[in-house]
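Help! Submission page says 'invalid entity' but I think these are all valid:
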Amino acid sequence: MTATKGLEGIVATTSSISSIVDGVLTYRGYDIDDLAEHASFEEVAYLLWFGKLPTADELKSLRKSLSDYAPIPSELIAQIKLYPKHISTMAALRSAVSALALYDEQADEMTEAANENKAVKLQAQLPTIVAAISRIRKGQEPVAPKEGASIAENFLYMMTGEEPSETAVKALDQALVLHADHELNASTFAARVTVATLSDIYSGVTSAIGALKGPLHGGANEAVMKMLDEIGTPDRLEAAIQEKLNNREKIMGFGHRVYKNGDPRAKHLQKMSKELGEMNNDTRLYEMSVKIEEIVTGQKGLKPNVDFYSASVYTQLKIDQELFTPIFAISRVSGWTAHILEQLADNRIIRPRAEYTGPTDQKYVSIDLR
Ligand SMILES: CC(=O)SCCNC(=O)CCNC(=O)[C@H](O)C(C)(C)COP(=O)(O)OP(=O)(O)OC[C@H]1O[C@@H](n2cnc3c(N)ncnc32)[C@H](O)[C@@H]1OP(=O)(O)O
Ligand SMILES: O=C([O-])CC(=O)C(=O)O
């Protein structure tokens, strides 16, 4: 038995949800470029769960279910108010999603229909939870979801209590489409491992949120913004990045386990970042990001991943840094739950082996002789 560090290159399951072949990402066979251009996030969620694009009636019915399920239990809001203020929003989200299961009588029901229903519920309720966490941390009351609004519109509305602009809704919707699924990434793998024990879907999503939180995965988008803030002004950029590279520090938002020649989602986020900057008459963040890309790609050959330009996109949409990774979760929960449904449809417990590297032939020594 020989272990492969980080399971690089190991094919651990079959899946018909998304694929990455020669740098091209597809959801259920549809190129991400095509979906980013034309599909709404709700259509994409339907596609991931049910394997086909919805008809107009199917989409209408999904939108209604998402809207009906969007309110969260008042007991959960009361709990969130008790969370300490110093914890990260991802820690709060992880706890809140785990607690959400306590208020769902269907939580442990393992039929396919019950799990599909819970997938829709989780998708509907994650945005409400994230917006509530954000407002409560600022000492504000949560805003109830707006009936009939899309996930993107509703999230922006619940975050501020104000009607978002059409531009902001469109940009966030496209970002959600781009983040929805990504084959066997770390958080999706965590979700599949959890439910493969026949544990429930809430446990699977809670595991996934825990995995997404780390800065090597979804947490990188927040780390990118921290780096841009630390650098502050374009005149300091070159020296600051060079220093990081000289110190062999990782530049957040660059590199990827699977893409070695560039992430196909980054160009969409880069374009969005540029357009939002031009619209706001302030392209500073976009220009700084482009300059960082020039330096890092030039010197290390590393390309930006999905997290890099999303940082400047979200900031230009006036979204707080601490919500960047939770927004990733709002999108990726569609993929996580699609993978959970796929795992459960043909389940086998996931239990690989470890190559033992510790001492052998040890003899027990009584405590007084150690
Ligand atoms: C949604 C997502 O999860 S996308 C990824 C988000 N994460 C980040 O942006 C964090 C920064 N990036 C990274 O840490 C890595 O590139 C990962 C975690 C994405 C991929 O990790 P791995 O596949 O294990 O790549 P690995 O760490 O082996 O990198 C190969 C080499 O490139 C270097 N490298 C990789 N990423 C970076 C980076 N962002 N900055 C500087 N150097 C890097 C490594 O140090 C390593 O160099 P070495 O061979 O001299 O030791
Ligand atoms: O696939 C990965 O390793 C990371 C990820 O989730 C993504 O890029 O969207």
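Support: the input was valid. A stray whitespace character was the problem, and the output above is from the cleaned input. Residues 6, 216-218, 220, 250-257, 300, 302, 305-307 surround acetyl coenzyme *A (ligand 1) (CB under 6 Å).
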